[in-house]
Amino acid sequence: MTQQQRLNVVLELVSERGSVSIAEVSDALGVSTATVRRDLNTLSDQRLVTRTHGGASALGSGYELPLQYKIARQAEAKVAIARAVSDLIAPGDSVGLNGGTTTSEVARMLGRSERLRGGADAAGVTIVTNALNIAYEMSVREHIKIVVTGGVPRRQSYELVGPLVAASLRDFSIDIAVLGVDGLSGTFGATTLHEGEAEASREIAAVSRRLVIAADATKLGRSTFARICPLSRIDVLVTDQPVSRELAGEFDAAGVEVIVAPAS
Fold this sequence. Notes:
The protein is α/β, with parallel strands linked by helices and 264 residues long. It has helices spanning 3-17, 22-29, 33-45, 75-86, 101-112, 132-138, 163-169, 195-206, 245-253; strands at 19-21, 50-52, 55-57, 94-97, 125-129, 144-148, 152-153, 160-161, 174-180, 183-185, 189-192, 208-214, 226-229, 236-239, 257-260. The chain has two domains: 3-63, Orthogonal Bundle (Arc Repressor Mutant, subunit A), CATH 1.10.10.10; 75-260, 3-Layer(aba) Sandwich (Rossmann fold), CATH 3.40.50. The protein is built from nine helices and 15 strands. Helix 9 (245-253) links the parallel strand 14 and strand 15. Helix 2 (22-29) crosses helix 3 (33-45), helix 4 (75-86) packs across helix 5 (101-112) and helix 5 (101-112) packs parallel to helix 6 (132-138). It is globular. It comes from Herbiconiux aconitum.
């Protein structure tokens, strides 16, 4: 296991538990306590954790992993979800994407799709996004037209946020918005950790005729700090596992179509 892989695992443990001890990390990774100390010091120097006596803790109750450390989490599920989402897109469609690892996979799937290259009467796909990483990665795809919103970037997620997002979307009409979320529940609907990202996602949804939520099973039945929209605003949920009976009832009552795309 490389150091980067170890750091990913340590950050996931801190995110899940709030704090970890050197012994816990050593057992989880199968490495020496000296190696764990060096890794924790590295993360502390990068201001990703708070170093404590005998371990490390999250920076706060709203702890959010930086995007580059989320990439390996639920990877197979996100690829399966992205494949199912791409099937909902037709050549010539305009697609709104917010930031995140799942929507990044959606963008990659659209970029690789031969079906969406279009033809004489269709011009590929237009992606409208506030995510700088998606815009950068898709800019080399000939059949993808990229439109980037205005805004101020968040280093944590590479997303543009602030009033310039809404200002730049004001005159757009998007066929389908695909949003990644941190939580999806019957009570609070779609939620995320940061209020600025929630507002940007709302603005993308507001100019879209159809709203798809792309979320793996770990996001379902939970809510996080900032609300994006209620369930009633969502048209389709694409996830990787069958939902519970209770959630299925709430989605059905709100008119949300559920598509399950199990990871292979």
